[in-house]
Amino acid sequence: MKIQGRREFMIGAGALATAALLPAAARAQSAKIRLGLMLPFTGTFAQLGVAIENGLNLALAENGDRLGGRELEFFRVDDESEPSKATDNANRLITRDKVDVLIGTVHSGVAMGMLRVARENGTLMLIPNAGADAATGPLCSPNVFRTSFSNWQPVHPLGKVMVERGHKKAVFITWKYAAGEESLASFKEGYAKAGGSVVKELFLPFPSVEFQALLTEIAAIKPDAVACFFAGGGAVKLIKDYAAAGLMDKIPLYGSGFLTDGILPAVGKAAEGLLTTLHYAESLDNPKNKAFRAAYEKKFKLNADVYAVQGYDTGLLLVQALEKVKGDIGNRKAVIAAMESAVIDSPRGQWKMSRAHNPIQDIYLRRVENGDNKVIGVAWKALEDPARGCKLG
Ligand code: PHB
């Protein structure tokens, strides 16, 4: 007599009654995997949140909308890039919705609130953007993985790029919150090593885009160049205001590549020629990137950007790990081991996790040409965050 597989057994009207007869472990295996998404769907980072969710959905769709053979159920929260709401939002997903995985977010301050909750509860957490250094530094945890970057990474090679172009005295301008401050610290470190110095640090509260007074100050200081961290709506406004103030030709503007990612159609000609460093560029010439961009455009009628890639890679990590444990997400040790040893065949190029659970990845030098971030070199091969203070591994 043929013994039916569990999947076949579950199909049909009697599924619930049947499930009750199964041993607990088998019952857990047949339930849907619950994915909790905490992302910004409103505010200055709204587009970034949408791109991450799209990228994640694409990777899951390419795997039949299943993980390790199990169906999926989604729980979504708009975190509004609002740190003061982060703990409540994360708690709701974990306690009320009982998610198996907490996925988020974009804003470093919000991610820190989520991290606190995930560490307390031991919930598996995947960070598809926020660079907060501590998450894979002093607060690194076995149950927390990042699929994007640490704030230290993208700007670390930028100082050398600027010094090589003769720009030894720079002003740094950014938002006054973790991502801006940590980008500045890393930039300064790399810039000093290359022989450059930051002559002035300028800050705006997040998410303000009132650049005028600071641009007047920059014009008066006359540094060799300006470096910055801005993203989303803030990046659009800075590029437009910088160009309108007539500064583009006089004082070159550099940044981590978030400055020019996902926003080029909104700024048009003003961004042409900008040089940035980042772990992705749309023009990367590898088969995975080409296939990914075509599939993304077909599914969402949008151009993929770095955020879409990070969401996609979050999906690839889940697919790979859950395949390895055959959908048994409750087998925490095995899931963690699978994620630690995963090799992600990403549109950004292949990458692996560091001992602190952060991607070891190439950082590209890009120039905006004809509305596209063109790769003009690898600014740093296989850059690994130093993970200062992390005791894992
Ligand atoms: C962050 O807050 O960590 C952050 C936000 C937007 C970015 C990059 C980093 O593009």
Mean pLDDT: 93
Total number of beta strands:
15
Number of helices: 15
| Helix coverage percent | 25-40%
Computed Rg: 22 Å
| Order of SSEs | HHHEHEEHEHEEHHEHEHEHEHEHHHEEEE
Bound molecules: P-hydroxybenzoic acid
Largest sheet: 9 strands, mixed
User: β content, as a range?
Assistant: 15-25%
Coarse shape: globular
Low-confidence runs: 1-20
SS-derived structural category: alpha/beta
Distance between the termini: 49 Å
Subunit arrangement of the protein: single chain
Describe the protein's architecture and organization.
It is a single chain. The protein is α/β, with parallel strands linked by helices. The protein is 40% helix and 21% strand. The protein contains 15 helices and 15 strands. It has helices spanning 6-10, 15-21, 24-30, 46-61, 86-96, 108-121, 152-155, 158-164, 178-194, 212-221, 232-244, 264-267, 287-300, 306-324, 332-340, and strands at 33-39, 66-67, 70-78, 101-103, 124-127, 144-146, 169-175, 197-204, 225-229, 253-256, 275-278, 343-344, 351-353, 359-369, 372-383. Strands 7, 8, 9, 10, 11, 12, 13, 14 and 15 form a nine-stranded mixed sheet that branches. Strands 2-3-1-4-5-6 form a six-stranded mixed sheet, with helices on both faces. The longest helix is centred in the last third of the chain and has 19 residues, at 306-324. It is globular, with a radius of gyration of 22 Å. Residues 1-20 have low confidence and may be disordered. The chain binds P-hydroxybenzoic acid.
